[in-house]
């Protein structure tokens, strides 16, 4: 019997991991999860709440661009664990339909659905951005369901605009507004697939050359004021920053999530006493170390 595969895509920070964890929490099925993070440190591997033996990592690249190398072997490894279903979290700069094609080609698999999330607070800006606009737009190609997430943080006019954009990019497709990707999970089964009506795929893009990726690891504690000053001063080119921060004060280790100008810090008592951060920016010269150093100097 073929194993159903759900592909979850959406731009950086749109809420893919949040949705994966929601599905895992609600579903009794034995679910293997393939996570493709953008950085050398696969933060999502630790944040996805499937057992470690059911989580498969596709780190350091973009699975939409290196299909043959990345996805195939990961799916093979996942199948060895006898899952009842497979969830694939695409990279935030990936095209979910490229991944879904694996499920269409492999007789062991059956495509259940492509779900693409959008960040209602940022979609308009992202689509108009000359560097990332095309990538964001292509993520809706072939999506069976579009989840307009971060609805709590979006102004009413931003929500209206986001719906207009989605109507234009994905006419006729179902769009559901959510907060923290909270949606009725029975929506996650498609009877027909938009991917069959999508146009031809464009040539692979080398996302590595469009985006600047950085990682930062250190065991030197960071004063919370330095961290907050750094976050406040981050340029708009920083699309995503996430990972763990070792602070000088209690609680010592915090999980940092920075998405399009907003951030959260949550105590992470079980994480190692280290700072481990990854970032992705449209400015290839952005570095986390430099950004922290600038704030540390201005504080002293
Ligand atoms: N305010 C608000 N925050 C949200 C919502 N959904 C997710 N978040 C937060 O946004 C951050 C990013 O969410 P993730 O689920 O990690 O997003 P992602 O798409 O997996 O991110 P990448 O894998 O880095 O592309 C986290 O701090 C989430 O808790 C939402 O609807 N509203």
Automatic annotation (TrEMBL):
Zinc chaperone that directly transfers zinc cofactor to target proteins, thereby activating them. Zinc is transferred from the CXCC motif in the GTPase domain to the zinc binding site in target proteins in a process requiring GTP hydrolysis. This is GTPase, G3E family. It holds the Pfam family cobW. It catalyses: GTP + H2O = GDP + phosphate + H(+). Keywords: Chaperone, Hydrolase, Nucleotide-binding. Residues 215-296 form the CobW C-terminal domain. The keyword Cell membrane does not apply. GO terms for molecular function: hydrolase activity; nucleotide binding. The keyword Metal-binding does not apply. InterPro entries: CobW-likC_sf (IPR036627), CobW-like_C (IPR011629), CobW/HypB/UreG_nucleotide-bd (IPR003495), P-loop_NTPase (IPR027417), Zinc-reg_GTPase_activator (IPR051316). It comes from Pseudooceanicola nitratireducens. Belongs to the SIMIBI class G3E GTPase family. ZNG1 subfamily.
């Amino acid at each position: 019997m073929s194993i159903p595969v759900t592909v979850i895509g959406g731009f950086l920070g749109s809420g893919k991991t949040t949705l994966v964890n929601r599905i895992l929490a609600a579903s009794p099925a034995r679910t293997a999860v393939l996570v493709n993070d953008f950085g050398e440190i696969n933060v999502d591997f630790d944040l996805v709440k499937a057992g470690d033996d059911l989580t498969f990592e596709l780190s350091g690249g973009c699975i939409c661009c290196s299909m043959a190398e990345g996805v195939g072997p990961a799916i093979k490894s996942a199948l060895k664990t006898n899952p009842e279903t497979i969830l694939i979290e695409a990279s935030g700069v990936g095209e979910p339909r490229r991944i879904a094609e694996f499920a269409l080609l492999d007789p062991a698999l059956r495509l259940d659905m492509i779900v693409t999330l959008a960040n209602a607070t940022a979609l308009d800006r992202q689509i108009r951005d000359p560097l990332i606009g095309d990538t964001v737009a292509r993520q809706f190609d072939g999506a069976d369901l579009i989840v307009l997430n971060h609805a709590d943080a979006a102004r009413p006019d931003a929500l209206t605009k986001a719906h207009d954009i989605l109507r234009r990019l994905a006419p006729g497709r179902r769009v559901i507004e959510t907060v923290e990707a909270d949606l009725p999970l029975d929506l996650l089964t498609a009877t027909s697939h938009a991917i069959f009506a999508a146009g031809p795929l464009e040539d692979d893009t080398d996302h590595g050359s469009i985006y600047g990726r950085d990682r930062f690891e250190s065991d030197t504690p960071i004063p919370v004021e330095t961290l907050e000053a750094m976050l406040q001063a981050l340029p708009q080119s920083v699309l995503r920053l996430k990972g763990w921060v070792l602070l000088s004060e209690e609680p010592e280790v915090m999980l940092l999530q920075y998405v399009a100008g907003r951030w959260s810090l949550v105590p992470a008592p079980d994480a190692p006493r280290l700072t481990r951060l990854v970032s992705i920016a449209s400015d290839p010269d952005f570095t986390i170390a430099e950004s922290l150093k600038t704030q540390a100097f201005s504080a002293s």
